Design the sequence.
């Protein structure tokens, strides 16, 4: 654990984006550096799911940092608990440009000293093409990062297996599947879910297929629901009952807002964590399983929880 803490202080450099390809505003690409990897990503932001293939939000850097350290810590604990186990299988179910999966390959494997089998999955073929290009550029000396060299996804450039440098058996590969299908294909020791918006539709697939003592990390960005601003949405997505009635008298509701109005309470960050953890616990219970929270993080625009199943 001390190795993880020490190394983490060295990989927190601010991400940098350099626009290098102006092939149309909708398809412009940029080279983005984060941690120890450099990736080709979309040069513009995304306003809805799938609108910009390869979208990479620089503001989510801390979310990815925590995930890198979580994979390293989980791998070390797994090896200490039972030495000689097969490769630790990790999946980034919404990989986009592949930046998180590649940071697992480059940083988590080194921090932990453990062998990893990393799956980078996305439903979009354009995202899969970018993830493949970035994997080859970062893990192989024979490929350039040049955005103009990105090839469309097809049979000729599918990344079936690529060895992770500096490891004996570590590998990575890219798949194009719905997240639920990718999760059900095989058990993964570490599952990371970071969809655009609510993570609720994917919780059952994650907790039902995680092996015993597997780790599931979930990031949700629908903070208006998690923080109690829209209680009806929190009830619909996460099964959380957030009472905003006039229960305190004097024209104030029990979430700290004016009577009859929805407003996030002063403890909104803790509320978001509890809502997401509660939804994960209920999802696990539906499959006769349970969860143990390992870490929680609530930032300005997302909530991340990491649990053991």
Sequence:
């Amino acid at each position: 654990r001390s190795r993880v803490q020490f190394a983490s202080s060295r990989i927190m450099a601010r991400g940098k984006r350099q626009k290098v390809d102006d092939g149309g505003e909708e398809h412009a690409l940029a080279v983005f550096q984060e941690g120890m990897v450099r990736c080709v990503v979309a040069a513009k932001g995304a306003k809805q799911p799938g609108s910009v293939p390869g979208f990479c939000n620089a503001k989510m850097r801390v979310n990815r940092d925590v995930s890198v350290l979580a994979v390293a810590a989980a791998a070390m604990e797994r090896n200490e608990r039972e030495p000689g186990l097969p490769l630790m299988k990790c999946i980034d179910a919404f990989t986009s440009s592949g930046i998180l999966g590649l940071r697992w390959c480059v940083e988590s494997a080194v921090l932990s000293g453990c062998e990893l089998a990393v799956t980078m999955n996305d439903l979009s073929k354009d995202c899969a093409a970018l993830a493949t290009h970035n994997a080859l550029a970062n893990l192989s000396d024979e490929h350039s990062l040049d955005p103009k060299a990105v090839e469309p996804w097809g049979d000729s450039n599918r990344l079936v297996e690529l060895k992770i440098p500096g490891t004996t058996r570590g590998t990575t590969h890219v798949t194009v599947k719905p997240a639920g299908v990718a999760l059900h294909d095989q058990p993964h020791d570490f599952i990371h879910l970071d969809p655009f918006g609510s993570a609720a539709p994917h919780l059952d697939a994650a907790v039902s297929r995680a092996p015993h003592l597997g780790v599931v990390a979930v990031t949700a960005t629908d903070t208006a629901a998690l923080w109690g601003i829209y209680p009806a949405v929190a009830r619909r997505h996460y099964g959380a009952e957030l009472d905003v009635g006039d229960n305190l008298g004097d024209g104030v509701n029990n979430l700290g807002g004016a009577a009859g109005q929805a407003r996030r309470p002063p403890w909104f960050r803790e509320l978001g964590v509890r809502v997401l953890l509660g939804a994960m616990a209920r999802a696990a219970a539906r499959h006769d399983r349970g969860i143990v929270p390992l870490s929680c993080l609530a930032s300005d625009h997302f909530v991340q929880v990491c649990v053991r199943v």
Remarks:
- Residues 1-14 have pLDDT under 50 and may be disordered.
- The first helix runs from residue 2 to 8.
